[in-house]
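Running this now, will post back.
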Amino acid sequence: MMGHTGKEYVINESFALAAYPEDQTRLSGSKLSFNKYCGVQEFKNAIFLWINLGSKDNPVVNDFLDDARQVTWFGGSRMHDESPVIHKLLNYGQQDNSNGANNNAADGPHSNIILWCRRYQTETKQCTPYVCFGRLSYHSHVPQSHPLKFIWNLIDYEGLKNHSDAAVRERFAAFTT
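Update: finished.
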């Protein structure tokens, strides 16, 4: 779980932890740009999917399926079947799925799609900080739907559900039940 709320914090923390050292040096002091209203953030070698859970104001409801082995995600209002980011998601997700997304071998699978979730808390009318639930592979989507509806497989399901740290297991269960 991130220490603060908001996508900006996730993006900057992720960059600080995972960017190539030469990129960190080159962009030192720069403000990373992103669309705070978009449910997807593209990078050169990865895509973050953002999911809000529990929001009653949203016309679409994201949810976990199949005992939290899968999750729904809806593309933004401007996304359609021919959007470049949708093509990239399908390419990444189907490639990862064809490499055996349910395989837990040390050398595979890999994925370029990372899931970030936060939950809307009705009692405080605020969202929790984002939590990373790992890598995703493609399961299915509804072409021509608006918004585009996807179902993604959680590659790291077993690791989250059976993590050695009870806090990780409890957080995953709290978000997914």
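Residues 91 and 138 are 9 Å apart (CA to CA). More later if anyone needs it.
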